[in-house]
Design a protein that fits this description.
single chain, alpha/beta, Spore Coat Polysaccharide Biosynthesis Protein SpsA, Chain A, 9-stranded mixed beta sheet, about 20% strand, globular
Amino acid sequence: MSRLSIIVVTYNSVGAVERCLEALARDPPSAGHDVVLVDNASTDGTALKARRDWPDIRVVDAGANLGFARACNVGIRRSSGELVLLLNPDARVMPGALDAMTRVLDARPDAAVVGPRLLDEHGRPELSFGSMIGPWAELRQKALVVGSQRGVPFARARVGRLTARPREVDWVSGACLLVRRADADAVGLLDERYFLYAEDVDFCAAIRARGRRVLFTPEAEVIHLRGRSAASRPAAAEEAYRRSQMAFYAKHHPRWAWWLRAYLKFRGRLPDMPIDPPGSIR
């Protein structure tokens, strides 16, 4: 049995997933591992190419676009590793990153989850962790993320400082998240009401509610080409984000949920009508 199971969820990701799998093959983790690729009914040949070029990888056809959380759960249930890595297809694991993340968990029996330092395509750090989502925390997080992406000196410097040292956090990004299977099973895996976005924050919240810790480590670095799928379909990505945001507030901040709904309706952003989902790459 592999110690580490790597779960990759794809949706029309034929180019990105090739680079993701190449990075894993070029610098594999020291621990025995297996890779499960769950394809959300891609129409670009993602599953076919993965089966042809990577015969050692288990490819699971989801049969429909299940979204990120549900597809991750399919992959987790099809694997058996003591540790489970959720990895976006647009992420490239740097040499030694998975070993570093495993060492961090091994050194902290009280911790259930660890996330790496995510870097954009130019090598700049992303703010890939944060405080529990709430009205003010969400505003602060968004201001830093957008400011850093736009090159605002204060925001970029702040993100650089925050991501320079290890720390306990409320959540880490599901783009690359290592979790102990026992802890994932204990909380019932990811909440499938989230199609895309917020499922990682909710998952970490459920784990912390059991008294377990969530860690961030800069010892491990992963290149993340954030939002390539969402950028091609911004309206669908916005719809998916708002639906997840509303579900999250209804679950965790019910007193704020009404105000959020009223605000979105006033701004003309209330997701009343279902639309074709944007896929599973954040």
